[in-house]
Structure formats: structure tokens, C-alpha cells
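Data card: per-record layout.
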Amino acid sequence: MSMINLVKKTEIVLQKRGITPIPSQVALAIDISGSMKDEYDAGIVQSVVERCLAVAMKFDSDQLLDVWVFDDGFGYVGQVQADSIDGFVSKRIVRNGKLKKWGGTAYAPVLQSIEAHYYGVEGKKASALGRFFGAKDKAGQDAKQAVGEQPLMVLLITDGENMDRSAFEATLATLRRRRTYVQFVGIGNSDLSYLESVAEAEPNAGFVQLRQLRGIDDEALLGALITPEFSKWIAKQA
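The structure for this 238-residue chain is written out next.
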């Protein structure tokens, strides 16, 4: 489906949520742990990135999306726009030998890298964690710009719970002080009750689980990215 049509469908979801988009930054973190390999091979992750880009195109003034991947490490993939989305996952992620892939699952390192990318803080902490988990943190070199006064929406897609609960909860606590909303989208049938409970306890985080991504309706997926909870949060940022 063309990005034009996906953006139109995003507009429909925004209208249903009663959202008038305000200038924001949008970041995407995609699980690339071992259990996700089938989703990459089947092209499902490419479809998800396309729909996340459609969301970003309604909020980001540059109409682009910053993309990270994570397992028990993380990697900053770079920016994607409508003219570079075709084959993005295959070319920039799967065939990228510099990205760590198919390991375990940790949330804190990638969230700290995202924070460093936009806010220019805790860069040393994020880099140290990246080295510990065997990943390269490029956020410092490749940061687009400081987020400044704009809200930041982080979309984190995962199919399994994490191995770093204490560090993860501490990282969310620091993000609580930012104009940052983290939308966790669980996929598959794994037990994600821990992630759900943590998100429910955070005023700037949300959780939704999609049991089946294969063949999912576009508006259903876009609605999982733009939840009613996020809609209330972003309305307060205007």
C-alpha cells in the first residue's frame, strides 16, 4: 500500500481519536531478538515500519521517523522517509552487518539511547550499556536535533518480556520527567503481563497487545499505535 493511502488512514484514526496533530518527534524501537526472526523474514516488520512512518508523517514537521532496533543490545538504524521506505527493513536492518541481532531482550539500553539522541543527556550511560550488551550506540553522532520543547512519541514493538527489569523501570522514571510518551505494542501470544503492569503505572506510557499481526487491518494497527490514552496525553501538550 502506498504511503499516501496509509497517511489517509492515519488521518481517519486521528479524527476518531479527536486529535489535532501538534509538532512532535516520533521514534520507533523494534525488537530484533531471536524470537522475532519469523516476523522479519515474513515482511511483517516492514509493514509495521510503514505504518509507524505514516503516524510520524502526521506529527513530525520533516515527515520522518527515527528507527532503532534492540535485543539485549541496541542499534540506531537511522531516519526513514516516504522516499526511502521501500525495502527499508531488508536493506537497512536485516542485511546490515553492523547491527546486533537475534539475542535476548532488554528495554533499558534502547530507551536510554533514544533519550540521549533527543535530549543530549545520559549519552555516556547509554553508550556504556550498549558496550556491555554488545551494541554500538550511534545516537551521539547521528542525533537529528534536540527535541527542545516538542513532545516525543516513542513506539516500542516487542514480542517478549525483558531481562533488565530494574534498569527498565529506572529508565521509565527518568522519562517521566520529559515530554515523552512511550507506547508499548506487544505482538504475539507471549505473556506480557509485567510490561502491561509497568505501563499502567506510568502516566506517560501505554500498552496494547496484538495477538496476530498477519493480515491485521490497517486501521486496527494504526489504532494500536495511536491509543485513546496517548490521545489524552498529546492533547495536554498542545
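Known properties of this structure: Residues 122-145 have pLDDT under 50 and may be disordered. The longest strand covers residues 180-187.

See the next section for split statistics.
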